[in-house]
Amino acid sequence: MPNFSTLLTKDNITAVAIGHFDGVHRGHKQLLKQLGEYGGLVVIDKNKANITPGLKRAEYSNYPCFFYDFESIKGLSGEEFIALLKRDFKNLKKIVVGYDFRFGRNRAWDKHDLKRLFDGEVVVVDEVCFNCMGVHSSAIRELIKQGDVSGANRLIGREYSIEGDVISGQGLGSKELVPTLNLDVKSYLLPKSGVYATRTRIGYATYGSVTFIGNRVSTDGKFSVETHVLDEIDVSASHVAVCFIKRLRDNMKFENLNELKARIELDIKEARTMVGVCELYGSEGPCK
After folding, report:
1. Over 18-76, what HEC string results?
2. 219 pLDDT band (50/70/90 cuts)?
3. What is the number of other CB atoms lying within 10 angstroms of the CB of residue 101?
4. 102 vs 122: CA distance, rounded Å
5. Considering the domain 12-127 in this protein, what is its CATH number?
6. Residues 6+ apart with CB under 8 A from 175
7. What is the DSSP secondary structure assignment for residue 232, as one 8-state letter?
8. Which sequence spans correspond to the domains of the chain?
């Protein structure tokens, strides 16, 4: 873990892990274990991270992130890329990468070239599997797109979460159905349309919740992300995070608001059985 009593900068960091780090998942965590207290992340940024966008990667890794724009460095040779790192990190003694790491122009250099070019320690971490499935950001994205958030959570090692500002909704919730917080979510990959058992974080407090994603086909037809906090807790917020537990059902069209409200009440009842415990079970380790 990093030394929080010391401000970590490029000048005093001695170890870096290199990668995209979208998701900061179980596989990435194996790289982080090799860094020590004066470590940092060299993030090759393609501006496509949507599991943990921006500095969320620093939050989930507990290490400072140093961003290198992919378009700016993709033309460098392997030798030029390593020279860049050594210029930027003057005390660099260790580089940590994954088993499939490639770098330089046209990804023509690999982990063997890295060991040849870098005069310090090079640590190559084997592929990590969880329940016999390789842990990769691409696999996690696909699970999220399919709505299998519980499967994605197991690969990430935490509940997948999104954040957004609270915006005005259509006004039906508190009057005719159940009160909801309507969110304006940017940058994050949204799970498949439907209804989910979730936890909603407001400030430092977390509440059980039910969250809807999709077009409101039973009312105005507009797309929305809205979350209902259970137990009718009187909450107000300008910004919230929603952590996904399990997909409950597809988005459905109802003939009237009474049918919709009855279905929402069933969703709430089912969600109550899930929001109290975080279950990220299974086993992880290198692939055999």
Report:
1. EECCCCCCHHHHHHHCCCCCCEEEEEEECCCCCCCCCCHHHHHHCCCEEEEEHHHHCCC
2. confident
3. 20
4. 14
5. 3.40.50.620
6. none
7. G
8. 12-127, 159-273
Q: Alpha-carbon distance 150 to 243, whole Å? A: 11
Question: How far is the C-alpha of 64 from the C-alpha of 9, rounded, in Å?
Answer: 8
Q: Which residues contact 275 (CB under 8 A, 6 or more apart)?
A: 197, 198, 199, 208, 209, 230, 245
166 touches 237 (CB < 8 A)? yes
pLDDT in tens, 119-158: 999 999 999 998 888 999 999 999 999 999 999 999 999 9
Give dist(CA 65, CA 242) in Å, integer.
Answer: 24
Geometric angle at alpha carbon 65, from 61 and 69, rounded to 5°: 130
CATH 2.40.30.30 fits 159-273, yes or no: yes
- Return the minimum-mean-pLDDT range out of 72-76, 96-100, 284-288: 284-288
Q: Is-contact 85 16, C-beta < 8 A?
A: yes
- Please name the helix (run of DSSP H) or strand (run of DSSP E) that holds residue 182, with its range, or none: strand 181-185
Q: How many residues does the chain have?
A: 288
In the chain, alpha helices (H): 26-32, 56-61, 70-73, 78-88, 111-117, 137-146, 149-156, 173-176, 257-272
Which sign does the torsion angle of CA 168, 170, 171, 176 carry? negative
Q: What is the pLDDT of residue 288?
A: 35
CB 103 within 8 A of CB 109: yes
Q: pTM for this one?
A: 0.90
